[in-house]
Amino acid sequence: MSTASLGIAALLDAYYRRRFTAAGLVESTVALEDGAATTTMHCWRFPPPDGAREKDNDDPRPVLVLLHGFGPPATWQWRRQVGPLSRRFRLVVPDLLFFGPGSRTSAQGPGARSEAHQAEAVAKLIAAIVPSGSGASPVSVVGTSYGGFVAYHVARLLGPGRVGRVVIASSDLLKGADDDRALLLRAAAAGASSAAAVAERVEDLMLPRTPERMRRLMELAYHKPRRFTPGFVLRDLVQFLYSDSIEEKQELIKGITLGDKDKFQLTPLRQQVLVLWGQHDQIFPIEKAVQVARQLGANARLEILQNTGHMPHEEDPKRFNEALLNFLLPPPSSAL
């Protein structure tokens, strides 16, 4: 991310960071045990109690982990959630590896750029911030888009004793090569008037390097994108959001194992799962939502958010947040 930019993107970034601070979250960069590799993960988290160990915290709110999608850092993607959700949960909001400041790994080799490796890092972050032990309540995990891939792996890796409820939002856990080709065809059809906006690879679409491709990605991601965004604003957004760790992010896209039957088999989760999807999602079409919910088994239920696209948490944050709260929090006990 460019720190030299003084345009609208830098102003927005500062504003979004203030929203996280106003929600009572503090920044932290945690060193994670990762064999011979050096791995750190930056996050926004509930503050630890002063002068006390984490396990001595008597805050009754459950812990909720929010995992962002591919693209901007967590502050840009969860800005409409942290305020309302922080009233009911102790939040942990990491920047996944190679997104945002301080989330890096020197790990190399097979699997080092997979969503499963991201999940291992998140699991270690959870262990560092919310130690397990007798009486420790399970955490809940919410992931959107690419973050949904990671959330699935976290839930499977840690099991129901550590992760209680899971939300998979706008995330095609069954994504394969055919889905990537279909996405590129939809992008080409949407950008038929501009050859410069047509991407030949998914990584070119998801990591826009020009204002034209940034506009095309926004048109695909939102059901009702802004009618007109000036080119200089898009150029500033590209420079600020898509100039850091580009090679590593390309490797992350190539390293996704979900949908590759030679590397991974999707199995039902033992936790209760909510699959949330935008009605007009053009990145992962709504028919995939039905397939994902069915594949996740009897513990999964599907909820469609009307008049939204791939970003329902931004396009209709009120309904998105209500869906999370209704699913994640137990109903109040009836009076005797």
Label the structural class: alpha/beta
**3D shape:** globular
Question: What distance lies between the first and last C-alpha atoms, to the nearest angstrom?
Answer: 56 Å
> What multimeric state do the chains show?
single chain
Average pLDDT metric? 90
Tally of extended strands?
9
Question: Nearest-angstrom radius of gyration?
Answer: 19 Å
Strand content: 15-25%
Please give the CATH architecture of the largest domain.
3-Layer(aba) Sandwich
**Would you list the SSEs in sequence order as H and E?**
HEEEHHEEHEHEHHHHHEHEHH
Q: How many domains, as an integer?
A: 2
What key attributes describe this structure?
336 residues, alpha/beta, Rossmann fold, 9-stranded mixed β-sheet, 15% strand, globular, disordered N terminus
What does this 3D model show about the protein?
- It comes from Brachypodium distachyon.
- This is AB hydrolase-1 domain-containing protein.
- Pfam families: Abhydrolase_6 (PF12697).
- Residues 64-323 form the AB hydrolase-1 domain.
- InterPro entries: AB_hydrolase_1 (IPR000073), AB_hydrolase_fold (IPR029058), Meta-cleavage_hydrolase (IPR052370).
- By secondary structure, the chain is of the alpha/beta class.
- It has two domains: 8-50 and 58-176 and 257-328, Rossmann fold; 177-252, no CATH class.
- It is 38% helix and 15% strand.
- The protein contains 13 helices and nine strands.
- The chain has helices at residues 8-22, 74-77, 82-86, 115-129, 146-158, 177-190, 202-206, 211-221, 231-241, 246-254, 286-295, 312-315, 317-328, and strands spanning 26-32, 39-45, 63-67, 90-94, 104-105, 139-144, 163-169, 272-278, 300-305.
- Strands 1, 2, 3, 4, 5, 6, 7, 8 and 9 form a nine-stranded mixed beta sheet that branches.
- Strand 1 (26-32) and strand 2 (39-45) form a beta hairpin.
- It is globular and about 55 Å long.
- The relative contact order is 0.14.
- Residues 1-5 and 52-56 have low confidence and may be disordered.
